[in-house]
Amino acid sequence: MTAQTETTANVAVVDDRIIAKLRKILALTASPEEGEAAAAAEMLQKFLIQHNLSVADLESKGGQKTVAITESGVNLGKAAFNWKLDLADEIAEHYFCVGIVNRVMKTVTFAGRPENVEALQMLYAWVVEQIKRLASEERKRHQVEHNEHIDPLRWQVNFGNGAVRRLMTRLNNKKEEQDEATTALVVHHSKEISDYTEAKYGRRYDGQDTKREAERRAYWDAYYKKQDEERAKEQAEDEKLLATDPEAYYAKFPNRHPDVQKEQQRREARNAARRARYQPRPRYRSYDYDKADQSDTAYHAGKSAADRINLDPFLKGKAPAGDLGKKGGK
Questions:
Q1: What is the CA radius of gyration of the chain?
Q2: How many whole angstroms separate alpha carbon 247 and alpha carbon 102?
Q3: Which of 38-42, 182-186, 245-249 has the highest mean pLDDT?
Q4: The overall pTM is greater than 0.85
Q5: Kind plus residue range of the DSSP H or E element containing 95
Q6: Measured between alpha carbons, how far is 286 from 178 in angstroms, rounded to an integer?
Q7: What b-and-e string marks burial along 100-131, b requiring 16 or more CB atoms within 10 Å of the CB?
Q8: Nearest to 87 by CA among 56, 131, 28
Q9: To which H or E segment does residue 309 belong?
């Protein structure tokens, strides 16, 4: 076995091990005890950063060829709420992937290197189930404490919005703490994935123009540059005409005559005074304050509950407590 083959085999083992470890983390953190809600997402991010940095180092030394980009969809079922789409759209970049979200068809696809896509799919499904479970628990608790029934669908939709906002805040804070090597790795993966999506979909996600967009931009830049040059030339000729023959100039542009300009100013001042005196009649429409208050309550409950998850079983090496398959709500 050559040195390069041996290195490639070691990378394959590392990939299998990290995927197995990530699965263990997400399985153990399904316990419904109190804890850190976003801690699992942050831990997964840390593992992926370490793993991708090691793989990038091997690639730079020629130990492994660049891994092909893959994509895999997520079945959201009938309950493809906006908070699920928002979560997929924003969480992908933190795990070296791109979320291809179709908000019309309400579909989610993750694109990236195989191990990153698989890890992100596990995390995404886990976060969705945790938000649904917490939403059910918090709705029941709110009903007991406040003796107020809130429609389960309205509660979950707004609870999910709040929970996703909180989770993204945590991940964005962690992103600011990344070192230069990690930032460079994110940029490299983003370009790698965008090259793939440009070839397949004609769209990039790294903020750069596609080849077609660059050609179109170059065409219109040249077009507008020519227009500006022609306009500047015409303006110079008009200024020369005004200096040499004012009557011919105002015959060509009657609206620019000083008398016409003064009349337009007087007309604008008169119309402005009329508008100032006009008071439009107020328009009234009904507003359901109860539904608005309930939606706001659910949203803030989601933000508050988004930090709840138990990592003790994994950190202490103990068996998880409770039913790992427990799910709440749709």
A1: 30
A2: 61
A3: 245-249
A4: no
A5: none
A6: 49
A7: bbeeeebbbbbbbbebbbbbbbbbbebbbbbb
A8: 131
A9: none
Amino acid at 217: R
| Cα atoms in the 13 Å half-sphere on the side-chain side of 203 | 7
Per the document, the length of the chain is 330
CA nearest to 94, candidates 106, 72, 110: 110
209: Cα within 13 Å, side-chain hemisphere? 8
Residue for token pair 């696809």 = 109
Tokens matching residue 54: 């090691």
> Which residues make beta-bridge pairs with 108?
74, 101
pLDDT digits (tens, 9 = 90+) for 83-137: 999 999 888 888 888 999 998 888 999 999 888 888 888 888 888 888 888 899 9
Q: What is the torsion angle, in degrees rounded to the nearest 10, for the CA atoms of residue 254, residue 256, residue 260 and residue 261?
A: 170
The two three-digit tokens of residue 194, written as one number: 């965008």
Structure tokens at 165: 């906002």
